Automatic annotation (TrEMBL):
The gene is Trappc4. CDD domains: TRAPPC4_synbindin. Part of the multisubunit transport protein particle (TRAPP) complex. Component of the multisubunit TRAPP (transport protein particle) complex, which includes at least TRAPPC2, TRAPPC2L, TRAPPC3, TRAPPC3L, TRAPPC4, TRAPPC5, TRAPPC8, TRAPPC9, TRAPPC10, TRAPPC11 and TRAPPC12. Interacts with SDC2. Belongs to the TRAPP small subunits family. TRAPPC4 subfamily. This is Trafficking protein particle complex subunit. GO terms for biological process: endoplasmic reticulum to Golgi vesicle-mediated transport. SMART domains: Sybindin (SM01399). The keyword Membrane applies.
Amino acid sequence: MAIFSVYVVNKAGGLIYQLDHYAPRADTEKTFSFPLDLVLRPHDERVVVAFGQRDGIRVGHAVLAINGAEVNGRFTADGKDVLEFLGNAANYPVSIRFGRHRLSSNEKLMLASMFHSLFAIGSQLSPEVGSSGIEMLETDTFKLHCFQTLTGIKFMVLADPRQTGIDALLRKIYEIYSDFALKNPFYSLEMPIRCELFDQNLKLALEVAEKAGPFGPGS
């Protein structure tokens, strides 16, 4: 079981803190001969697998590296177009590493803002008056848990679907936020959280939650 990441979103929908705690490795590297037996397509400034998944390479995986050198979006390390490079028989055999695309800082900001909007929509669509909005989203590989405070700050945790004690963890994170961010004289409300003590205590809380599950009294 594992906790993947933590997000803190202010009441205006801005991302003020994000921590990647654990990222499962799903990269696959293979050596290919010409012609390439996968169909690749450009998508959102990167090159992804559109057809032909096999041997751990899945549709949607992005090209991360060619011959051991990291690619930069749709271009190789030396500035060549990835699709043109892989379409040239003279460049084979070639080693390609595929995997899940790593979110950029801008993408994380955008997704946090989108969830803020979905949270508000969920609250308005609820047949119950005073609904709190989205508290959990579940997929086959992770669960997104959300806790919103009375002041509108949202704490979100992405974790393994089997991970227990997340509700208690969210409240523990709120406690850490209150103790080490709000009580910091150099911190301004609604602004990004940059506090070493906050980081240290948050990471400790995540480790405790992974190993022991729910927090006990006085933890």
